[in-house]
Amino acid sequence: MKERILITGGAGFIGLNLTEKLLSKGYLITIIDDLSPQIHGDIPSISSILLNKSVNFIRGSLINRKILRTALKDVSYIFHLAAETGTGQSMYEIAKYINTNSTGTAILLEEIALLNNQIKKIVLASSRSIYGEGAYLCKKCDPQNRLYPISRSTINLNNKKWEHLCSKCNSPLSPIPTKESDNINPISIYASTKHNQEQIMKIFCESFNIDFNILRFQNVYGNGQSLKNPYTGIISIFSNRLRHKKKLLVFEDGKETRDFVHINDVVNSLTICLESLPIKYRIMNIGSGVSTSVYDIAKILKNVFNSSSQIEINNQYRIGDIRHNFADNNLIKELINDFPSVNIENGLLMFGGWVKNQPLNKDLSSEANLEMKNKGLLKNG
Fold first, then answer.
1. Fewest CB atoms less than 10 Å from the CB: which of 29, 112, 124, 181?
2. How far apart are CA 260 and CA 343, in angstroms?
3. Which residues pair with 125 in a beta bridge?
4. Torsion of the alpha carbons at 250, 252, 255 and 256, rounded to the nearest 10
5. d(CA 322, CA 324)
6. Where does 83-380 sit in CATH, by number?
7. For the chain, how far is it from start to end, CA to CA, in angstroms?
8. Strand 292-293 and strand 257-258: pairing?
C-alpha cells in the first residue's frame, strides 16, 4: 500500500516543488493550504500539480481543527511548511505571525497527539533567521573564538556604520559559516515564531516518541517562487521591478550578504528526511554555504533580464534585518554528495528564464516599503 504524506502549506513555492518530487517516487499526497492572497493573489490560480489524481488538495487553515482532522486521515509522514515568512511585516503584524506560525503548529501537534502513533515522522521547515546575525570572528584580536553580535544599534545604522564591530578593539568583525550548534538569537517576530516552532516540535516529538527533522533554510529561490508577495524574497522582488523597467532599490550599502539556496537542493534535503536518519542529522542547516551580496544579486539579475534599469544603493535600513549570515552545511553534505547542486549564477539564469514566461504582476514593493516606513521600521541611514 502506498504511504500518504501531508504537506502543510503545500500549494506554496517549496510545497509544490516537493509534491512533484514525491509524486515521482510514488507517494500519495495530501495538501492543506489556505491560498493566502498575499502569496497567491486575490484570485489564485490552481497549479496542475494539485489536480493530480494522487493529490488530495484541501483549501483551509491549520487553525480549523475540522479541516485539519480531514487532512490527517491515513497520513504517515508530515512536512510542516505552512508559515508566514515576511521578516519586516512580522514586526507590526505580530498576531498574524504568531497565529499562523506558533498557534498553527500547536494545533497541528495537538491533533497528531490524538492519532495513536499513526504519524511516523514530522519534518519542520525552519529558518536561518533564528540565529540572528550568526557567527563572526575578530581576526585582529581574537581569531580563535566565535562571536555572536547582537542587533546593530540604530545610532550606528543612522551613521551608515553597517558592519559589526569588535567590542574589544573596535575592528570590523568577519562573518563565518554558522553551525547548527551556534547561538540562537532571533531578532524579528518572524524569527521568534520559527524558534518557537522548533522548541514545541522537539518537545512534542520526543515526548510522543515520533521521529522528526528540523531543517533551517537559508534564502530559498527558484522556479515557482511567488512573484506577487512584496514582503519577502529579494530575488523575486528585484525580478518583478526589472520587468517593469524600474530601478532596483538596494538597502544599506549593498554589501550585506545572504546565503541563497536553490529550490532543487531544498527539495532534495526534504526528501532525504523520509529516511530514518541518525540523531546527529536531526537539525540541519540547508544553505549553499556561500555568501552573496545583495548588490551582486542585483547585478546578476540585471544581466539575466538584459535590463537597463539602474541599481540605487539608497542607504536605508530595515529594523530586524541582519547584516550577514551563511550556512555551515557540512551535515547535509554528508547525506547528499553533490550538495549544493546549483550555484547562484546558474540558479538565477534558470529562474530568470522561468520568470520571463510568467504573467507580469503589479509591482507592490514600493507600497510595502512605504508601509514599513510609516510604521517606523524603514529608516534612512
1. 181
2. 9
3. 215
4. -100
5. 6
6. 3.40.50.720
7. 60
8. antiparallel
